[in-house]
Design a protein that fits this description.
The chain folds into two domains: 42 residues, no CATH class; 58 residues, Homeodomain-like (Arc Repressor Mutant, subunit A, Orthogonal Bundle). It is built from five helices and no strands. The chain is globular, with a radius of gyration of 17 Å. Helix 3 crosses helix 4 and helix 4 packs across helix 5.
């Protein structure tokens, strides 16, 4: 019996709870670097990785805090001005308190 799509996603989430972020990032980077070894081209790897980690982290933190940037900056451990700069750089839409889920 094969699991349905929903069961498959639940299994994936359960596995995510057991795997560190560092291990997930390392695994993905190994795939990218293997592609480079095989002739693939990547530019600005550091910038790409940082954006792909920072953007969702900021978006999720903002949503958790109902768009409150002071609380979000505190949660992330960064200065509010730094948060504002990253919001602008990544063109993140700041949620309102009513959109908090």
């Amino acid at each position: 019996m094969t699991p349905s799509h929903g069961q498959s996603n639940n299994l994936f989430v359960a596995n995510l709870n057991k795997v560190s972020l560092e291990k997930l990032v390392r695994s993905k980077l190994e795939v990218i670097l293997k592609q480079i070894e095989e002739g693939g081209r990547v530019k600005n790897l550091y910038s790409q990785v940082m954006e792909q980690v920072e953007r969702p982290m900021i978006e999720l933190a903002l949503r958790l805090q109902g768009g409150n940037q002071i609380k979000t900056a505190e949660l992330l451990g960064i200065n509010r001005n730094t948060l504002r700069k990253k919001i602008t750089t990544y063109k993140i839409k700041v949620p309102t308190a009513s959109s908090k889920q």
